[in-house]
Write a structure and sequence with these properties.
The complex is a heterodimer of chains A (about 110) and B (about 110). Chain A is an all-beta fold and about 110 residues long. Helices cover about 0% and strands about 60% of the residues of chain A. Chain A contains no helices and 11 strands. In chain A, strand 6 and strand 7 form a beta hairpin. Chain A is globular, with a radius of gyration of 13 Å. The mean pLDDT of chain A is about 95. Chain B is mostly beta strands and about 110 residues long. Chain B contains no helices and 11 strands. In chain B, strands 2, 4, 5, 6, 9, 10 and 11 form a 7-stranded mixed sheet that branches. In chain B, strands 1-3-8-7 form a 4-stranded antiparallel sheet, with no helix packed on it. The mean pLDDT of chain B is about 95. The chains are: A mainly beta (about 110), B mainly beta (about 110). At the A-B interface, strand 4, strand 5, strand 9 and strand 10 of A face strand 5 and strand 10 of B.
């Protein structure tokens, strides 16, 4: 059975304190791994897609990496506006997305 | 403005009533999706549609009905609402179903009393 697990569930960082969020997956036939950001009361906002092990994508203070079993979302020198829930989703052979439960990030000024 | 819009944003209804959630996108995307989001669960797919008049079940389709007569609209109907269907519902669309991200609306918060 396909599974996506995100850790930690919640993370509090001081402004400027870099850290990483983890998304581990057990799926058959990974077609792509997606990262989204979700603010309270809003829909998920697309950040990155990764397709193969070793791939990396960057956007401002965020960098996503992918191995055969997990993906990391690295946050460098975060700011309070980076506070949000970060969702990971995998796309399998059926072409539908399976989402993790997310990591709620709080960045304290 | 281009994008994907959901209505209503909030809805309170009673068990046994029929309720329809609306979703409209202006990108002319072929694929549209309905998810529900509950505490302790990731977003779970209810139904999706590959094109007008083509729909298919997702992970949790029971109790829901969809239709897609026009490419831009994808309404979700709860024919006889139950308390277990209290949730936040998100609609999404994508140009294709591979290698393209899904873009989400801001959701409908549905409470069933």
């Amino acid at each position: 059975e396909d599974q996506v697990t995100q850790s930690p569930e919640a993370l509090r960082l001081q402004e400027g304190e870099s850290s990483s969020l983890n998304c581990s997956y057990t799926v058959s036939g990974l077609r792509g791994l997606f990262w989204y950001r979700q603010d309270p009361g809003k829909g998920p906002e697309f950040l990155f897609t990764l397709y193969s092990a070793g791939e990396e994508k960057e956007k401002e203070r965020l960098k996503a990496t992918l191995t055969k079993k997990e993906s990391f979302l690295h946050i460098t020198a975060p700011k309070p506006e980076d506070s949000a829930t970060y969702l990971c989703a995998v796309q399998t052979g059926a072409n539908n997305l399976f989402f993790g439960t997310g990591t709620r990030l709080t960045v304290i000024p | 403005d281009a994008g994907i819009t959901q209505s209503p944003r909030y809805k309170i209804t009673e068990t046994g009533r029929q309720v329809t959630l609306m979703c409209h996108q202006t990108w002319s995307h072929s694929y549209m999706f309905w998810y529900r989001q509950d505490l302790g669960h990731g977003l779970r797919l209810i139904y999706y549609s590959a094109a007008a008049d083509i729909t298919d079940k997702g992970e949790v389709p029971d109790g829901y009905v969809v239709s897609r007569s026009k490419t831009e609209n994808f309404p979700l109907t709860l024919e006889s609402a139950t308390r277990s269907q209290t949730s936040v519902y998100f609609c999404a669309s994508s140009a294709t179903n591979t290698n393209q991200p899904q873009h989400f609306g801001d959701g409908t918060r549905l409470s069933i009393l």
